[in-house]
Amino acid sequence: MQSLQQSLAASHQSEPDAPPKQVAQAMERLNQAARVIADIRLGADRILEAMFVASNPRHNDMPLQLFLREDASMRQHLQDLRSIGKKLEESGVLTESLRSRSNS
């Protein structure tokens, strides 16, 4: 996330300054994206833990229920992240060069 912010700063140094409100909104959206990414990482850890527990034959349906709950949560987090990304694109924060770098 920090490298994305540094890339944004470097790519916009030659351009005129954005209005303060636009910069504040962009920073807030980047912070939202960072929080969602942290939630995704935690969810991935929980899914892996549920899979590990499920591999033990003595456990009941609890790991399956946990897995299904985390799966739904992860899907929602990824949808939220896509939505934030679209808002950043619409506001002009994500340029074509940054988008192509993030897809690689």
Automatic annotation (TrEMBL):
InterPro entries referenced in this protein's UniProt entry, alphabetically: Mediator_Med27
Keyword Nucleus: yes
GO MF entries: transcription coactivator activity
Entry keyword annotation includes Transmembrane helix: no
Compositional bias annotation for Low complexity: 1-13
Region annotation Disordered: where it falls in the sequence: 1-23
Annotated compartments: Nucleus
Sorted UniProt keywords: Nucleus, Transcription, Transcription regulation
One GO CC annotation: mediator complex
Tree of life domain: Eukaryota
Family stated for the protein in its record: Belongs to the Mediator complex subunit 27 family.
Annotated protein name in UniProt: Uncharacterized protein
Provenance organism: Brassica carinata
